[in-house]
Each structure stands twice: as structure tokens, then as C-alpha cells.
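Chapter review. Work through the record for Lipase family protein before attempting the end-of-chapter questions.
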Amino acid sequence: MSETRTSNSGEYGKAAAPNQKRYRGEIKLVDDHDNPVSGMTYWVDNQETRDKRVAQYTGISDADGVIRLENLAYSDVTLTIDAQPLADEMEKRTLKSKWVTPYQMKMTPAIPDTKTKNIVYQVVIGQLCNSIPKQEIDRQEVANPSQMNKDEKKADQNEGAVEQDKKKVELAEISFHFPDPQFSGLTIAAMYLMEQQVVVKICPFRAWNLVLHHQKEYSMVNAYNLGFMANITYEKEEFFNRFMKNFWDLSTIPSLKNDRQLFYAVVKDVPFSEGYTVNQFLNTDMPKGGEGDSQLFYIANNNMILVSWRGSQEGPDWVSNFTFRPIPHQLELEDKKGFVHKGFWEAFDIARKKFGEDFDKIKEIASDKKRKLFISGHSLGGALSVIHSAVLKSYEPLVYTYGMPRVFTYGVVRQLQNVMHYRHVNDGDLVTFVPPQAELDSKMYDIWGSLGTYYGTWASMLQWISLSTDIDEQKKNELYVHHGDVVLFFKAQQSVVYNIHVPENNEDAMQDFTIRGTLPLEAKFYLVSTLSEEQYVQSEVCQRNFVDCADKQSLREFFPAYETPTRDSIKNPLHHFMPDRYIPFLNNQLIELVDTKRSMIRKDKRQEFIDQMKKHEIHLSKDEKKRNQLFISMQSALQNTLTVTQELQGGEDALSRFKQTAKEDVEK
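C-alpha cells for Lipase family protein:
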């Protein structure tokens, strides 16, 4: 006879019954690639073990990852595994694509395998662990130092119980890998386990990292991911904190959105202990009413640190962009010649002084030779990124900026040639043209005292307008110039030129006329100057020659007054916006490189543009034809910028993940 429960709780509800039939069951532990997870110490409990009628089932998973259970009563079982060995092993395992969501794991814990028909439980290690592994304790100590200190002090009150209390301490927050603070184990239904093998598929104990390459050569994935992070700087701190939590969640991919769609970061899965344990959001305006309005964040792990600066957002930021006053630079450079934009320097200096400890921490992290330094920013944020890179010059920063204004004069820029910097410009982005490339150290800045910046700026603009193309060599150090290698998003047009002969009034003589016009189709090109430097220089010459040979009437036709210009040589503030202009173009270009067979509007437009060139070939301007052919060639060369990612361990998986989630957005 045996004893059977007739209720779920309490001492009552037990009744004598005939001996139950005994079963055997198997549990197979596998990773995301269906490779066995062997050598794991396990404990299995059911109602009989909890009632102390039989001993707890325990052992080690065999070479095939199998746990064999004999002489089981028909009862649900609970599986737990020794936490630290499991965490250490699952850190080494990689992810296929991305994991199922916590909601899916909760609502549909068991699913049938379509091939073997076995039942599969998809779990994270926290559903199997019997305690908190060291990696999670370390992460929480960094993320929540005050809370963990309280827990340790409490544990110290009980002599010899510190380590035990650490293992049992409640998690500061429910996280993806640890959804159960009580570590209750995985319950497997009796109906699945009896006389068949149940598969427990364990999510790798990993975290997301941005795919970034610290190298001199241009990388398309760098451009996309660093632009992506530059865009995050415009968000509130609450969003940033939620966003960073997603790097610990393998069921989702960190994303941002504009008013049309989501954009997904290019990420790879790395061991949990290599996740971003450092992430700090800084805003000089907080608490509300603080000095300035500079905003940035930095994130770091064992092998890198990224600093991103916010661009122009409030009115004072735009005033900073469009006041030209230069002041002597205060950088630690050999030559003290040269100037820096006053407004940009002050915006940087306010942040550096207010968050001195954080800036020291950035330096400390960057000084570790194992950690590579990345800096990014858009607009004003790009200017602050370049200033920060000049300050951190000795730490070999890699800088990617988007729509940034000029920040230094030539005297400074020539001393920063070793700073790796790619400067992205979207067509006629107005901000990239200011301050103008001119010597603008007007005396008005000093004469008018507190109003000097206002009057000095207008005086500088008059100087700019009347500036001669012949630059005095002595003034060269005082000219605002751009730093870095340009990456240009160029919207190209096709112009046709017709030469006709018209008889003069009632005379035999003929009069020659030249008629110029613009063909209707345009195409936008992604031009990286360093990919084919010789080609780019030649193309720039062609562009200049074409404009020089056109008369004023033709220029007015190409660039009609009071209308949005389509040529990159005309300044347009609408070309400046990061989520609406830069991010979509970066996103679409990466999709085109990753998914070469995908049908895309941008590819169709470019092909139509090429067909238009062929159709009107005999009437095209010679210089413009040559220029556009070079642009087509440079566009094709972009495929080379993906090689470094494809050769990276986990790089192909990262690109495949992006390919599955990314969608083409509207290009304006």
C-alpha cells in the first residue's frame, strides 16, 4: 500500500491506496545549438522527497547532458543545478539568434520539438540555479553599490554567514537571466517526463555588446552603432536606464525609434561578465536649473569605453552653434597657436567641472590598455566629442561624428592629425558650414564687453561674406576648419547641356546659345573619402569645375530662391536632424550591404539614375558625368567596410540578427 494526497496543502487529505506504478524519466540539458551541457551537479525533488519518504535524487549530468531518474512516482519534479558551475559553463556557450521572451517562457513553458516530438523547456539559468552566481553578485555590486553594502552589513551580523547570505540575498531587480528571486527551480510536469526524454534548452549566460571596431579604417557597423548611440543622448535619463537594461536581456535587441519605425543596434552576445557594468548618464541641467545644458553618457565593460555627447536641443545650444567667437585653446598641445569656439568650449568645460569625478573615471578606464576608447556625437555633441577627443588624445580615441560644426581653428587641428575621426555630413546640412571657414577674430568681441559676442558675431559674418579667397599665411592658424575624414551623404543630380545655333535677325549669320537644365531623377550616394581618396579628390574638382563654368542664371535655375535646395552645395537646416535624416540613411545603407538580395527603394532609385545617365549621355556635362561615375564607383566600394565585422568572432551572427530585424526607412 502507498499513501496518496487528496489535497494540495495541509496535513489532511491523505488516503491509503494501492502501490503506484513506478516510472523512469530522462532530462537532457542542451544549449541553444543543441549541444549537451554535461558535468552539472543536479538535485531533483518531487512530492515524495519533500515528504521525506524517499531520498532526494542527485547526481551529475553525463557526457550527453542526460540526467536519468529511476523509480519515479507519478508526480511533477523540480530540477535545480549547482549555480556557479552552470553559470561558468553557460557563459562559454553562444546564442543562435535571440532568446524567447520572459512572457513566452512563462505562458508556454513547454513546447514540442517538431523533429523529435520530445517536449522542450526553454529556460534561463536563473530558473535552474540553486543560488546567485558570482557574476550576478559582481554586476549588482557595480549597479547598486549602496544596496549591496546594506546586504553585506546585515550578513556580517551573523558570524560565518556572510557567504551564505550573499547567495540568498534578494535580487535588486528582477532581470532576464534571474526571473525568480527565490531560486525555486524548474518544475517539469509528470505527464511529460514519464517514459520519455524531456529536453531542457538553456539560454547562454550572456549579454549584448555593441559591435565596434577600434581601427583606422572606416567601418560601416561603427558608423551605424556610434550614430545609434549618439541619437540616444537626446533621450531622458529614464529612457537611457531602460535602454541599458536591454543589453542584459537576450530576448530583445536594444532599439530606438523615430516617428516611423524602430531601429536595432548591431549587437553580439558576449560572456555575462563582459557586459556593460558601467553606465552613467550626465546632465549639467540636473537637478533642474543647473548650469548649462550639456548632456552625455558613458558606458564601459572589460574591453572598451564609449562616451556620447548630445547635440543642439534647447535655444542656448543653437546660440552656441551660431556665435563664432574664437578663444585661445587650453589644450595640452605642443603649440599654443590656434583657437577654439568659445560656446563649444564652455559647454564642454561646464560638464567637466560639474562631473569631475566622472571625467576622472573616464580617464582611468581609458588608461587601461585593454580598453579601447570610442567617442561619438551629433551636431553640438559632435563638437564636444572632438574637444573631448583632443583632451583624451593620448588615449587614442576613435571618433565618429554626425552633422558637427567646426570647432577648432587650423592651429589646433593640425596638431590633432593622429586622432582618428570620421565626420559624417548629410548633403547640405547647414550646421556643418558653421562657424565659416574664415579668420573671424573680430575686435568687436572685446570692444563691446558683455555684448561682444553678439556684435562680434555679426562683424564676423560680414568678414566672412567679404572674405577674399587669398588667405594670408600668417592668418592660417586662426581659420576655423573641420577636423577628421569626411563621409558625405550626397544627393546627386544630372544636368544636361544643349548647344544650339539660331539665325540672327534676317541675316545669314548664326548665333550660338547654350541651354542648361536639370533632369528629374536624383540619387543619393554614401561617399567615404578614405575608401578611394584619389577618386574623391577628382570628383571634388569636377564638382567645382561644373559650378564655376555655369552662369548666374543657370545657378538660379539649379537652386531656386525660397525653395528647399537639393544640391549639397546649398545649406539646408532640414538636412541636419539625426533621427529623421542621418539614422535612416545609415540604417538603409547597412541593410543594403548585409542583405544584398533585398529589394530596396534606394537601390531602384540609384539604378534609375544610372539609366538616366546612359540615356542622356551625349548631353551630360563632361565634368558632372565623370563626377557621378566616380560616385557610383565609390558607392560600390562600401562593401569593403563590412569585412572586419564579417571576420569578427560572432560578427556574422550579429549581421544576421540585424538583417532579420532591420527595415528600410524613408530617405529624405
